[in-house]
Amino acid sequence: MNDDAPGQLDALKAEHRRLDQEIAELELAGNADQLVIARLKKRKLHLKDQIALIADRNIPDIIA
Q1: 13: exposed, middle or buried (C-beta count within 10 Å: 0-12, 13-18, 19+)?
Q2: Were 32 and a residue from 9, 10, 26, 64 both cysteine, which residue would form a disulfide, CB within 3.0 to 4.6 Å?
Q3: pTM for the full model?
Q4: What 3-state DSSP class applies to 61?
Q5: Cα separation, 45 vs 25, whole angstroms
């Protein structure tokens, strides 16, 4: 397990939440550039994948 994984995971989760809030605010405004929103959503999905990857690495393999 990477010693910095918990800190990195927390930072990624915080960035994911920030992007979620930013996207919601832009969509609520109604006049936002759809390309900007699409790029933010793509970044958010990338963060989600990184979060899942780190979380999976931190869970030990257990042979049932």
Answers
A1: middle
A2: 26
A3: 0.78
A4: coil
A5: 18
pLDDT (tens place) for every residue of the chain, 64 residues total: 455 777 899 999 999 999 999 999 999 988 889 999 999 999 999 999 999 999 888 777 776 6
CA distance 48 to 30: 25
Going from the C-alpha of 45 to that of each of 7, 38, 49, 59, 60, the distances in angstroms are 20, 11, 6, 21, 25
The two structure tokens encoding residue 27: 């969509």
How far, CA to CA in Å, does 49 sit from each of 24, 28, 36, 44, 55?
20, 26, 20, 9, 10
